[in-house]
Amino acid sequence: MANALSTLETTEAGALKIVSVPCLKDNFAYLVRDESNGNVAVVDAPESEAIEAALQALGWTLTHIFITHHHNDHIDGVERLRSLGNISVIGSAADATRLPILTQAVMPGESFRWGGIEVDVFDTPGHTVGHIVYHMPEPGVLFSGDTLFAMGCGRLFEGTAQQMWGGLSALAALPDETVVFFGHEYTATNADFALTVDPNNAALHDRVREVIATLQAGGRTTPTTIGLEKATNPFLRAVSEDVAREVGLPDADPEIVFAEVRRRKDNS
Ligand code: ZN
Ligand code: FE
Predict the structure, then answer these.
(1) Rounded to the nearest whole angstrom, what is the distance from the C-alpha of residue 233 to the centroid of ligand 2?
(2) Which are the catalytic amino acids?
(3) 97 and 157 both lie in a single domain
(4) What is the pLDDT of residues 244-253, one digit of tens each?
(5) Are residues 215 and 241 both part of a single domain?
(6) pTM score, two decimals?
């Protein structure tokens, strides 16, 4: 038990306790407990085993499942986890035909209450057309799925660069202190790539050093913040003259620069 607990890293945000649960090869699920009412959500369910083990180690009882998108590495654990009790499954109404059966289908752009917590649903098409992310303005946390990663963003499997840029821009407009919990530990390769398109960014170099030290010590790089991503994520930095110039598109619109940065990452 002590062993299982020691691998669970907890972030406290207001009444929420948020625990990152490594799943499969490089996925993260997040267990979120509202200390004020005992609600426990998991955001994405790549598998059930690791999540059940974490719930047991914490002594928490699952009440809700939030889904960001339909890929197997985000939903494969849903059916087994929902069999554990009377569990609400929340996901995008627009993508309901290819998600596990939902008990609450939410619309992008809508806000709903999870117990006492307001949750804003952001439409972030690009990685998949139905991808959504969950923002809780109070206490200021974002579950970004496969849209925004530490120094990276999701691959464009279904949507266009233009769509992805629209979603990322909306996330970049959130308060800098917003704590971001993302879907994959891709940070080491993202860091390598970021340096190729933003080589003169001192904040990026500092962060890469930090991230390498964290990973070498066996730690994980989640969560991040919107402020840190705006300063060091080469995709959000499509708004900067530095990155535009580096990819040979000085004076181009951020959306065009973003598309080129994404293309280079795909070919890296
Ligand atoms: Zn995905
Ligand atoms: Fe994924």
Answers:
(1) 19
(2) 69, 71, 73-74, 127, 146, 184
(3) no
(4) 999 999 999 9
(5) yes
(6) 0.96
